[in-house]
Amino acid sequence: MLAKGSLSWIAGMLLFTVAAGYLSRITGGLASYLFLALFIIGAALTLFFLMFFRDPERSPAGDEDDAVSPADGRVISMKERGISIFMNIHNVHVNRAPLAGTVTQIDYKPGGYIPAFNKDSHVNERNHVVIRTEGGDLELTQIAGVLTRRIVSYISEGSYVRRGQRIGMIRFGSRVDVIIPEGYGFTVGLNDKVKAGETVIAMRIEKKRG
Fold it and tell me: Which of 69, 84, 121, 174 is catalytic?
């Protein structure tokens, strides 16, 4: 399955590749080699887009009140109630809701080009989402990276999201920050690898103790 809104990227690159391949066959001399090089580049980018925009089905682990990861990637920072997950270029970049609830706030801000793992990435393009869950408010921030900056949201204020539901994606290198509701504790640690909509990252503290 491919991510929502990705067909235009893939179709455009495929058309470019086919055109370059055709022109490499009908032209001669230096132009033929130039179009052949463009064909090779186009074919490589088409394969890259197919890999990057993949969107596999996921089945959330744990119980309904367990928070699942919003993103594929690696945990790069943890605070008392906050966690940061860095998505590398090879990760799936579709983001998912950690818990079920109602979207009460979406605050999008354009920004700069600093790498998403950098401590100064607060100036980057970002999308801040607040979800009111049964356990309290959960805050999620999508942060774009140094490459093509584009955060695509699949949700709107007032909409209800299921646990593990797709809520958007970030293109070409990015990070997702999550602030879990009070009464929750993390079940993952620094540098752990997680999967969006699948890996349990936090659960109620009473449940953890039990």
Answer: 174
Give residue 111's pLDDT: 66
- Phi first, then psi, for residue 146 (nearest 5°) are -80, -25
Q: Which residues pair with 128 in a beta bridge?
A: 107, 141
What is the Cα–Cα distance from 185 to 202, expressed in whole angstroms? 5
In order of 26, 34, 60, 100, 112, the CA distances from 199 in angstroms are 52, 46, 7, 15, 30
Q: Residue 174 catalytic?
A: yes
Coil, strand or helix at 127: strand
The residues that bridge with 171 in the sheet, in sequence order, are: none
Instruction: Please count the residues of the chain.
Output: 210
Phi-psi domain of 149 (left: phi exceeds 0; alpha: psi -120 through 50; beta: other):
beta
Tens-place pLDDT, residues 32-76 = 889 999 999 999 999 988 887 888 899 888 899 999 999 999 999
Condensed to tens digits (0 to 9), the pLDDT of residues 83-99 reads: 999 998 888 889 999 99
Assess contact for 173 and 87: CB atoms under 8 A. Answer: yes
128 SS3 class: strand
Q: What is the C-alpha separation between 133 and 90, in angstroms, rounded?
A: 31
Give the amino acid at 73.
G
Question: Tens digit of pLDDT for each residue in 127-159?
Answer: 999 999 999 999 999 988 665 557 889 999 999
